[in-house]
Structures are given as C-alpha cells and as structure tokens.
Amino acid sequence: MLTFKEFLNKIIIKKIKRKDLMVKLQLGHEEFNGVDAITMSRWFNGVTTPSLYRQLLICELTNCKKQYFELIEHPKIPVTLENSMSNFTTQFDSIYHELLRDTKQNEIYTINTTNINSREITHPFMKHINAKRKLINYMDDHNIKYSTTFFITGQKKDKLVNSYIFTHTRSDLVFKALNIPASSYNPKDSLYFGLGFYRCSSDHEVLFGLVLNHLVHKHLDVQNLFIVCRGLKSMLWLECFGAEQVSIIEASNKMGNIYLYTISTQKILSNPVIITHIKKYWNTYLTLTNNCQ
Q: What is the DSSP letter of 92?
C-alpha cells in the first residue's frame, strides 16, 4: 500500500509533469485555485498532504481513480467515528429485521430506472408514509419523469427486494413537492439519497458502499448531497459526519419522524470512514455495473 506522497511520485508523475499537473488542477476545479508550486512541492515531499477530497479530485483529473483505490493505504479512522458507525448499523440487526430475512440466496444487483417505474420497488416499504404519496401526486400532476438508480439485495429474476438504497439528481423536485424552502440550499446542484430500507446490517454495509461508489464514479462534481433518514441513531450518525438538518419531512407515530439532511460533497468525501468504505466496495461496484452494461 502507498502513502499519497508515494502515489504522487510513483503513479501520477508518470502520467503528467509536475508543472503541467498544477495547471491542470487550477483549470480543472475551483478547489485548486490557490494551489501554487510551493504547495505542490510540499505534497510531493510529504511535508503536507491534501485532504481526502482533494486527493480524489487529483485522481479524477489525472484519470488515476482506479489505481488510487487499489493502491493507496487506508486512512486512519478515529475511534469515535468507528463507534458511531457501529451504533448506527447494529439497529438493522434487530429481531424484527431477522424475521424478514428470506431463505433464498441473497444477491446484489442494480437497476437504472425512472421515478415512475421504481414505485413497484418502494411501495411495499413506503406505503404508509404520507410524504411518499405527496411526492407521487406532485410528479403525476406535473407529468414529471426522471432517472433514478437503485442498489438492491434480493432476487433480480423474481423481483424480490429485501433491502435497497436509491439516488437521483432531482432534489429540486423533492423540495417543491414537499414545500421545503430552498432559499438556504442549492438542490439543483446535488445528489438526493432517498429513504432506504435494510433487512440487516450486512445489507446496509454493501449497499451503502455501492451508492458511495456511484457518487464517486458518476457524480463527483455535485456540490452537495441531500439524505433522507429515520430515527435518532441515523440522525446522530449523519451529524457526526457534519451533516445539517434541513427539514422534518414527516412526523409519524407509526413510522417515526423522517428527516432531510444536507452535507457538502467536499465534507463527506474528506471523511476517512467514507473513503475506506468506498475502497472496500470499489471492485464490487465495478463488477456489478460492468455486468449491467
């Protein structure tokens, strides 16, 4: 495994000269507007190390993401973050979720579909959520159709869904449909993570890893993420990453309150837990998406 200093000197420098790299970074992303020759020299000498987010952007702009996730050493994860992740994921291993487990062999698959066609997937899980009905009614009334990507565990042939997570780029429509003020946010330049359902912690782990890879592969340029969650443990988990609550989507005695959070792409992709999770499921994502092409 390589440190980022070693990665710069052994991998990236073979593709592009240091001077050309500085120009490419400055022109390629506003994050590097203040980068100069001294900063670059410190990176290459290991005096300083760019944030994890900047590392990703450097690899994106030099077409080295694959080597980065295969060769770079794991970032150090603070114990507090590890504990927070554990407290969050263990909730999916309750007796209730155990009873929902299907006896058939579970497989992982992905579907690129539309908000209209995806109702078949989400309805059994979200039929009691009033906000979901508001979203459907708004899209139908305005004849709106957009693309959405699902990552699922279950049986694709039998259309069996045990767990899922989904994402799309139309956060602006969610804001309009649910009458959420958008003055302090930018839902147009974002990626939306809808409310997911998981039958166990292992399902959540793999699906979360896949959707994070989807972010890095397809939407690294978006400024911020909007994430829907339910329950105190989920809220605390998001807030430990620096996410901020935007709105209560629904207050429900039956389902529990449902919240909308926001976090910048820069912030979430600078978190060592997130980068480690992306790295862990990098090859799984590539295999899964290549099989779907």
A: G
